[in-house]
Q: What sequence folds into this?
């Protein structure tokens, strides 16, 4: 409905925002389904809704100035000639890039889109929707300026190259305060993270591995408190040895498992 040409955009926006009332949305779902059917229906509904919503808004992130712009003279401060002083100050002390620019609050979300959610290799630009989603979470929940960057790291044989991602991240590092690796298939994800953590001057984090591990550990520790058990006395079974489970195992060992 929101993308129907019969509606003008202003009206469509009002209709769309009304539909986006997430709290009451489920009242429109069928009542005569069992839990399994309802779950499948919700998944199909939200996928279709997501596709139309992204088409309507052309993505979900944009960049806005945070400084006052009172007139053309403002550009003399924020751009030339005033900004020259910023460039030379950072030239003399690179650490000032974290103070005089937005670098300290800027995160690069880097992916080659080879392991996007449960959909596998989605081609380099196919991961943009997820990376924009991660940027949305960082912006909304933490006030972080995140930039989604999907890279084509395929070699001459069409295979994804870990070295290309490593080189890319090293090249963009001067513009960011940290790097979040996302949806990179194994075994490349292991090499990329290990090398960049050693050789990059800024923090590098693999969300699918370390992020998942942190959540699992937090949930496990709280569950053990409820049942009155110690992690060192527990037997833990892992199904598979991908990026997430490998990181989870390492962190649980550190935690005393």
A:
């Amino acid at each position: 409905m929101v993308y129907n040409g019969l509606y003008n955009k202003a009206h469509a926006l009002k209709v769309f925002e009304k539909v986006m009332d997430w709290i009451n949305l489920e009242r429109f779902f069928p009542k005569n389904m069992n839990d399994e059917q309802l779950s499948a229906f919700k998944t199909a509904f939200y996928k279709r809704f997501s596709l139309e919503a992204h088409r309507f808004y052309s993505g979900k992130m944009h960049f806005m100035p945070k400084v006052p712009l009172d007139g053309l003279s403002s550009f003399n401060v924020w751009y030339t000639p005033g900004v020259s002083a910023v460039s030379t100050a950072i030239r003399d002390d690179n650490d000032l890039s974290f103070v005089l620019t937005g670098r300290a609050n800027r995160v690069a979300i880097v992916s080659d889109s080879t392991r996007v959610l449960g959909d596998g290799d989605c081609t380099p630009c196919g991961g943009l929707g997820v990376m924009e989603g991660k940027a949305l979470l960082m912006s909304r929940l933490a006030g972080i300026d995140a930039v989604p960057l999907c890279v084509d790291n395929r070699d001459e044989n069409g295979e994804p190259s870990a070295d290309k991602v490593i080189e890319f991240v090293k090249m963009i590092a001067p513009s960011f305060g940290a790097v979040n690796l996302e949806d990179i298939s194994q075994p490349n994800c292991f090499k990329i993270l290990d090398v960049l953590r050693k050789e990059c001057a800024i923090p590098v984090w693999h969300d699918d591995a370390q992020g998942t591990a942190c959540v699992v550990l937090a949930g496990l520790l709280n569950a053990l408190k409820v049942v009155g058990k110690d992690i060192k006395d527990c037997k833990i079974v892992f199904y598979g040895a991908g990026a997430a489970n490998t990181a989870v195992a390492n962190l649980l060992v550190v935690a005393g498992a």
User: Anything to note?
Assistant: The first strand starts at residue 106 and ends at 111. The domain at 101-202 is CATH 3.40.50.10380 (Rossmann fold). The chain has a mean pLDDT of 89. The CA atoms of residues 32 and 38 lie 9 Å apart.
